[in-house]
Design goal:
about 325 residues; disordered C terminus; Immunoglobulin-like; mainly beta; 22 strands; disordered N terminus; 2 domains; 6-stranded antiparallel beta sheet
Length: about 325
């Protein structure tokens, strides 16, 4: 009798999983406006070959948890749809946790990543394999069945920084910008994406740091003449972190450095960056304005994700 009941239950579940299958196919979407931003990094996901990975748990009303997706690759096709294999279908006796990471090449520790937690180990902004890490989370309660596509609204897990060097119009000196760099900052860490961190501050808390680099990092070589508009903007990934809080020892404070060639001589300058918190989804532009009497440094902060744009005051002179 118990065997018959078990077989009947199994048969019913199978029927529920296959009825109206075409209507109940789990589809994905990443068509949203949040990546239409001021960054020159990733600002559009919908191009053939674009891929992200999905992790999902189906939490049954009985308390059981089914491992639904475990790093399934979802690709945008030339036909304009997001496609994956093998196909999965909706159930209605529970709810879903979906998580996604972009790009699909992200080094995810898949053996411990689930719909409730994505675990990325030792991401580094100074490695040759650095990538624009983005994540998304969707919860779907099926008590009122909803078979619409799962819209993955990706958020940047990193911040970005760039340095612009320009000169005042009345400065007669000719400068060549050789390079720019930063010193004393966290450049690697583990990213544990749990819960539903919906703000940049909460997403920043998903990071824990594994490597503090004291030597020059995020180095950019230019070899261009400095003009009044500045060199072209080059964004670089940075780890979200607090910069130069009051508890940081002077020798450990983050510094912005740049090298100029003046009359054939190299002149290097380093300046301690005033306190700031680099948050995920923001672009920080450090603008150096050269003058006959010295230089001004200011930082502009704009939203990478599409929200309000803000600007900081001029922080000081060097």
């Amino acid at each position: 009798m118990m065997l018959l009941a078990a077989l009947l239950c199994s048969t019913l579940q199978s029927c529920r999983g296959t009825e109206n299958r075409q209507d109940q196919l789990i589809d994905f979407s990443a068509d949203n406006e949040f990546l239409e931003n001021k960054s020159t990094l990733v600002n559009e996901l919908q191009y053939p070959g674009s891929t992200f990975r999905v992790y999902a748990d189906f939490n049954r009303n009985t308390g059981d948890v089914d491992a639904l997706f475990r790093g399934t690759e979802v690709s945008y096709t030339a036909e304009g749809v997001w496609y994956y294999q093998p196909l999965e279908y909706w159930y209605t006796d529970g709810d879903y946790d979906f998580r996604a990471v972009w790009p699909a090449s992200a080094d995810v520790v898949s053996t411990v990543s689930t719909g409730k937690s994505i675990n990325i180990q030792n991401y580094s902004v100074v490695s040759d394999q650095a990538y624009d890490l983005m994540v998304a989370y969707v919860y779907r309660d099926m008590s009122r069945p909803d078979f619409s596509p799962v819209d993955m609204i990706f958020r940047h897990a990193l911040a970005a920084v760039n340095v612009i060097v320009r000169k005042e119009a009345d400065d007669p000196q000719n400068y060549t910008l050789k390079d720019t760099y930063f010193k004393n900052m966290y450049v690697a860490g583990n990213f544990i994406f749990e819960g539903n961190p919906a703000t940049p501050e909460a997403l920043s808390d998903c990071w824990n740091y594994t490597y503090f680099q004291t030597t020059a990092c995020l180095h950019q070589a230019y070899h261009v003449a400095v003009n009044t508009s500045g060199n072209s903007t080059v964004n670089q990934f940075i780890m979200p972190q607090e910069i130069n809080g009051t508890s940081v020892a002077e020798e450990n404070k983050c510094r912005l450095g740049y090298t100029l060639i003046i009359n054939g001589n190299e002149v290097s300058t380093e300046v301690v960056i005033p306190y700031i918190e680099w948050l995920p989804g923001k672009v920080y532009t450090y603008r150096v304005t050269l003058k006959a009497s010295g230089a001004d440094v200011e930082v502009l902060s704009t939203e990478w994700d599409k929200v309000d744009v803000t600007a900081e005051d001029i922080y000081g002179k060097i």
